[in-house]
Amino acid sequence: MKRVYLDNAATTALDKRVFEAMEPYLTGQYGNPSSIHANGREVRTAIEKARRKVAEILGAAPSEIFFTSGGTEAINTVLRGALEKHSIQHVITSPIEHHAVLHTLEYLKSAGHTQVHFVNLNDQGQFDLNHLEEMLKTYPRSLVSLMHANNEIGNIMDMDAVGDLCATYHAFFHCDTVQAIGHLPFNLSQQGVHAIAGSAHKFHGPKGTGFMYVDADHAISPLLIGGGQERNMRGGTENVYGIIGLASALELAYDEREQTIKHLLSLKKYAIKRLKSEIENVVFNGMSASADASLSKILSIGLPGLGENEMLLFNLDINGLSVSGGSACASGSNIGSHVLDAINVPSDMATIRISFSKFNTTDEIDFFVQNLKMIINDNY
Is 329 a residue of the active site? Predict the structure, then answer.
């Protein structure tokens, strides 16, 4: 049976070139990078080369890049470590952040470590920067945690504008950039952000490997204590082949970014055109239909009047289509999307998130639209 994968915001296929870069570190080059013998030194050299490459691409110093098990660990480390190191009493965030941010802050609040405040949104999910400034005036020297690009509706935040506000009010600025890495340009030394998070599997790298950037002038406390790896910021033997794969995938993503974005935008525009012509009353949530204000890879599709969409997603799966009902992190649960709730999407509207990669084609978009139309006509 034909199978089409349109859930690339959840995870991407490993690029074969990335696997080729990783393969020697899965077999022959197996030394522990903390060992002083030749085997260890060889692997340590490869890790530091990868670190330099990541730093170069993102406009940071190598000493500001720390490898982790993924975006969630990076986010937890920054949020906990910044609060502890800088004795921060207030956090400003938004109701549409990833659960790695929101659940961590809920825990820290319940433990009495901080107070949490939420910036206002409009119905398109855009942050109210005037409200952010009002809160920063009230709670200066706070921690601001706002995502660069939303994983469900694709909205892109103006990182520079938020960075300027945080600088004015001496706030620590953390940005969840997990979805944005590989798609949007970065020059971290110029953007006013103090910490970001990335995850390799979002840009055709391996799962289980990520990184955090922490500005050298805004050091944080570590989360994992152990053998002193990652310059005492993250104890535990490094995931060597994962780190090599992350750096390789990131380099490919930025070397090919212009052509990839052009391809993704063409797929998005084509999908919007086909959906509008074939599906009655279809709408697009947030800013996801905008070529400029959303990630090119994400399209959030609203289907008014269809109600809960579990059966719709099930039928699409049966017909060979891998898509999401919003955030993949909530898949398999009965918990509705907090993002769609926050932007007041009606409860009777079914939602499908499709997300593209460089490997998708317009024929696959046709296959998706045809099957969606058939399922709606047969069941609603």
Answer: yes
